[in-house]
Design goal:
Oligomer: single chain
Structural class: alpha+beta
Number of strands: 24
Helix content: 25-40%
Radius of gyration: 23 Å
Largest sheet: 8 strands, antiparallel
Distance between the termini: 12 Å
Strand order of the largest sheet: 20-17-19-18-22-23-21-24
Shape: globular
Length: 508
C-alpha cells in the first residue's frame, strides 16, 4: 500500500484552503481528475491536454484532498492502523445520494477503492468507530457518513433514516413521539449504516436479534453505480449480503428501521456471582423465561482486584406501575445481598455510557490503541472457555475497559452472514480493552486475541466482525463456512470490480 500522496499547493483564500471538487468552483490549483497512469489526483494544469486524466463528475458536495482532511480519515477508534499507510487519496462529503452514485461509478471505472467512514463519537472526537482498520481505504476514496445524516421520517412503527444518522440521534427523535428502536447498541454515537453492515448487538438481542434484524429495507448503491431498494422480499440476495456483510456489496445510503412503543422507565438489577457456573445457570434461566426486557452481563474484577467475578445486568421496563422486584429475583441464586438495583428513566439507561465515556477520556483510555476481541461462543463450551479466560487475563488486560458476556438465542438472528455457532444458545464474548496509557504490550494483546480466537473456533465459536484479530483469506473462508460461496457470488454480482471496503480483508 502506497503511503505517498502527491498534492498541489492550495491558495490562501477561503474556502480554497481546502482542496475541493464539486460545489465550490475549481481554481487553477484544484484537483479536477484522476490520472489513471500515475494513480494520483491531477490539478487542472496537469490535466490540460493529458488523455490519462479522467475528469471527476460534477458534485453537489465536495471531494477533498488536503492533507489535513485525508489525515483525519486515516485513523480510527482502534488506533492500530493509523497514519500514512491507511490514508485515502480523497474524502467525499456527499451533497446527496446522487453524489454517491456518481463517485461509485467513477471509482469503478478507474479502479479506485471506496469505503464509508462512519465518523461517530461526541464533541471533537469524531472518527470511524472501527477498531482494526475495517473502514480504511488506502489510496482510495473515503465517504464521510456525516454527509448522510438526515432523519427522513418517523412513523407509527418504522423510521426512515440516512445511513450516517447515529443511534443516539434516532433514539432522541423517536422518544419524543413515544417510540424507540427495539434493538440498540450500548454506545449510541455510531452510525446506523455502519452498525447494520456488521450486525450490531445490544441488551435486547435475546428478544429482537441483532440491530440489522430490525431493518426492514435499505437503499443501497451497488458497484455498478445503481441506486436500488432491497429488503427480505425484494432483491433478497443483496439485502442479505449487505446486512452483516461488512460493506462488501454496496454503500447503504438509507434504512427503514422498525420502531416499538418506548417504556418510560426501567428497573435495572446488577446481580453479582463469584463463579461462572452460578452465572451461567441464572443467565440461561432468565433467558428461557423472558422475565426481563433487557438482558446483558459481564466478567469483571472482584472488588479487591484479586480475581474475577460475574455480573448479570437485567432490566424490567414499565410505564406507571413498577415491577415486583421480589418476584423477579425469587428463584435466582443468593445474589440479593450485594445486588445493586436502580430505577431510572428509559432514556437515562439507553445513554448510560455517556458518563463512562467521560471517565475514559479523562483517564486517557479513550485514546489508546484498542485490541478488542469479539466472538460468539457455543453455550455448551462456554464454561470451559471462560475458565481458561480467567487464567489468561488480568486487570491490565482490561485497563479501563470491560468484558461483555451474556447469552441469547440464535433463532433470533435472521441475516445469514451474521455467523453463529451451531447451537440454540450462544454467548456474546466481547473483550473491549481500553488499555492503560503508556503501559500495555499492544502486540502481545493482539497475539493473545489470536490465540484465544483459535481455541474458541476449535470449539465451534464464530467471531463478530468488530474486533482486532489478524485474519487470512483462509480464516475468513472458514468463518463463513457453507455461506462463503454465496457471499463470493454476491460480491461478484454486486461489486464485480472489487472496489468496496477493502479494510475488511475478506476478498484481499
Amino acid at each position: 500500500m502506497s503511503s505517498t500522496h502527491r498534492t498541489a499547493a492550495g491558495t490562501a483564500a477561503e474556502p480554497s484552503r481546502r482542496r475541493v471538487l464539486g460545489g465550490i468552483a475549481t481554481t487553477a490549483v484544484a484537483v479536477v481528475g484522476w490520472n489513471t497512469v500515475s494513480q494520483t489526483w491531477a490539478t487542472a494544469a496537469e490535466a490540460a491536454g493529458n488523455s490519462d486524466v479522467v475528469p471527476v463528475p460534477g458534485l453537489v458536495g465536495t471531494l477533498e484532498t488536503t492533507p489535513g482532511v485525508v489525515d483525519s480519515f486515516a485513523n480510527d477508534f482502534g488506533h492500530l492502523f493509523d497514519g500514512a499507510p491507511s490514508k485515502p487519496w480523497a474524502v467525499l462529503r456527499p451533497g446527496g445520494t446522487n453524489d454517491i452514485v456518481k463517485i461509485v461509478d467513477y471509482a469503478r471505472t478507474n479502479n479506485i477503492k471506496i469505503a464509508v467512514n462512519g465518523q461517530g463519537g461526541t464533541g471533537d472526537d469524531i472518527e470511524s468507530h472501527s477498531v482494526y482498520g475495517q473502514a480504511r481505504v488506502p489510496g482510495g476514496i473515503s465517504i464521510d457518513a456525516k454527509g448522510m445524516s438526515k432523519i427522513i421520517s418517523i412513523g407509527s412503527d418504522t423510521a426512515v433514516v440516512e445511513a450516517g444518522v447515529t443511534w443516539g440521534q434516532l433514539t432522541d427523535a423517536t422518544l419524543k413521539v413515544g417510540k424507540t428502536p427495539p434493538a440498540l447498541p450500548d454506545y449510541l454515537y455510531i452510525s446506523i449504516g455502519g452498525t447494520i453492515s456488521i450486525g450490531g448487538i445490544g441488551g435486547t438481542v435475546q428478544k429482537y436479534g441483532l440491530l440489522c434484524d430490525t431493518v426492514q429495507s435499505i437503499d443501497i448503491v451497488t458497484g455498478d453505480g445503481k441506486l436500488v431498494t432491497a429488503s427480505a422480499t425484494q432483491r433478497t440476495e443483496l439485502f442479505n449480503a449487505a446486512l452483516s456483510g461488512g460493506g462488501q456489496v454496496g454503500i447503504i445510503v438509507r434504512a427503514t428501521v422498525k420502531l416499538i412503543p418506548a417504556p418510560k422507565r426501567a428497573v435495572i438489577f446488577s446481580l453479582f456471582y463469584s463463579t461462572v457456573e452460578q452465572y451461567l445457570a441464572d443467565s440461561e434461566k432468565v433467558l428461557a423465561d423472558g422475565r426481563f426486557q433487557v438482558h446483558a452481563g459481564e466478567m469483571l474484577r472482584t472488588p479487591d482486584n484479586s480475581g474475577w467475578r460475574y455480573k448479570l445486568e437485567v432490566g424490567a421496563t414499565y410505564n406507571t406501575t413498577p415491577p415486583n422486584r421480589t418476584r423477579l429475583l425469587c428463584d435466582l441464586k443468593d445474589v440479593r445481598a450485594d445486588a445493586v438495583i436502580e430505577d431510572v428513566s428509559f432514556r437515562d439507561y439507553m445513554f448510560r455510557l455517556d458518563a463512562y465515556e467521560a471517565y475514559l477520556k479523562e483517564g486517557g483510555h479513550w485514546y489508546t490503541p484498542k485490541p478488542w476481541l469479539s466472538m460468539f461462543l457455543p453455550a455448551s463450551k462456554t464454561k470451559a472457555f471462560m475458565k481458561l479466560v480467567e487464567q489468561e487475563l488480568d486487570a491490565n488486560s482490561l485497563g479501563g475497559g470491560f468484558l461483555l458476556f451474556y447469552p441469547f438465542y440464535t433463532s433470533k438472528i435472521k441475516r445469514p452472514l451474521a455467523m453463529m455457532p451451531n447451537e440454540s444458545v450462544v454467548y456474546l464474548f466481547d473483550l473491549l480493552r481500553f488499555p492503560n496509557p503508556g503501559e500495555p504490550d499492544i502486540q502481545g494483546m493482539i497475539d493473545q486475541n489470536r490465540r484465544l480466537y483459535d481455541i474458541a473456533v476449535a470449539s465451534g465459536a464464530k467471531r463478530y466482525l468488530v474486533g482486532s484479530i489478524p485474519m487470512t483469506g483462509a480464516d475468513w473462508q472458514k468463518h463463513f463456512g457453507n455461506r462463503w460461496s454465496g457471499f463470493v457470488n454476491a460480491k461478484r454480482r454486486f461489486d464485480p470490480n472489487n472496489i468496496f471496503t477493502p479494510g475488511q480483508g475478506f476478498f484481499a
